[in-house]
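Hello,

I think I submitted the flavin-adenine dinucleotide job twice by accident. Can you confirm which output corresponds to this input? Input:
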Amino acid sequence: MPKNTQIVVIGGGIVGCAAAYYLAKRGIAVTLFEKGTIAGEQSSRNWGFVRQQGRDPAELPLMMECNALWQGLEQELGVHLGWRQDGNLRVMTEESQVGPYQAWMEIAKNHGLDTQLLEANDTRRLLPGLVTPVLGALFTRSDGQANPARVAPAFAHAAGRLSADVVSNCAVNAIETSAGRISGVATEQGFVRCEAAVCAAGAWSSRLTRSLGLRIPQLWLRASVGYTGNGEPLTGCGVWMPGVAFRQGLDGGFNIAYGGRYKHDLTLDSFRFFGDFAGCYKKYRKAIGVTLDHNLFHDVSGDLDTFSRHRVLNPRPVRRNLRDALANFKSSFPQYDHLDFERTWAGYIDATPDMLPIIDRVERPAGLVLATGFSGHGFGLGPISGLLASRLALEEQPGHDLQAFRYSRFQEGGKVKPGNVL
Ligand SMILES: Cc1cc2nc3c(=O)[nH]c(=O)nc-3n(C[C@H](O)[C@H](O)[C@H](O)COP(=O)(O)OP(=O)(O)OC[C@H]3O[C@@H](n4cnc5c(N)ncnc54)[C@H](O)[C@@H]3O)c2cc1C
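Support: Only one job matched these inputs. Its output is below.
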């Protein structure tokens, strides 16, 4: 492990690994620290949807550029990433969906995105065997999917080949400053001096930056996923229907989840940021169940070595949600009646009050870049977010309007509008 480096990246998820790669590609001395394993948390646990569809208008220009990055990523990184570009489909089964989907068509049109509103028959053609009555669907042909377990490690390996230092099983316990500037990081294996740091610590970013006087309102939402054995080919689209979301990877297995059902396990941050999230609690009270478990106990008992004590956040999946999702999938596609889950898992989403990330270079301490709070849709945005973070860390113009992602929006007094989950 070096004693000096130019830029430290904290967090080995897709965002941190992409940031390290794009810095190393430019010949910058960069060291990435991951407290557990590369992609141990959200970045390997997600559904694998890489969609432009349904995004907040502020995210769409970023995601459209990112879509172009994804198309060349397997070649650039030299790894098979399970990339399929067969579109994203949001199926309408209820009248109440029609208005919002038509409204989103306007956003797509304004950005020149290839989204269409399909009739029921065209929707059925894309989903052979579907027996649920449908009204139509929102379809974005250029959307894709990839295998989450492969992407962040591929970025990390490529960064390493370019001479980045990638250090796993080593938590950054504190970010140090001198005269208002980043001076280094205190890690489990000692102090490393640096000029700038990228905080891409996912669900831990708020806790890590608190000692610098920063206040990042961020809460954990537990989301569950199941993987089935191989099935007959159905579709290459990422599909979202009321009661089930799924994608079929190139190996024929389905990732299945109950879109729109989450658990919020209380932590001290639930109370600390209650005011920031009041709008969300109200808007999503039916989608988010609040539970009490050991996280709150750890917080109250003052977990000083918190980052090394929690090498990999590995929460329990919510069995009921997965059972319901699989049952809904089978009742929509009876030809898969024999399928069952081979494995199930869960991950903690790092949600912000408006469900938008923070991608910003903060004023104080100088040299600190935040790339965090991706609120359940940062896998798709991962490559571009890493690229933007690399430019910010080098004090360059990011090349995109990042106003909507500024850190200060949560400190400006007025309430931020609750965003859309997923
Ligand atoms: C179940 C689920 C489904 C999802 N589905 C999708 C989807 O289909 N499409 C999509 O676009 N997004 C999806 N997401 C969201 C997506 O996975 C995340 O937004 C994205 O992976 C965030 O990447 P990240 O690098 O910011 O964070 P993470 O992947 O969480 O990585 C942060 C890393 O930082 C490390 N770390 C934290 N603190 C420290 C420290 N002090 N020192 C060293 N290391 C530290 C952690 O160990 C972790 O590995 C989903 C998320 C979940 C949980």
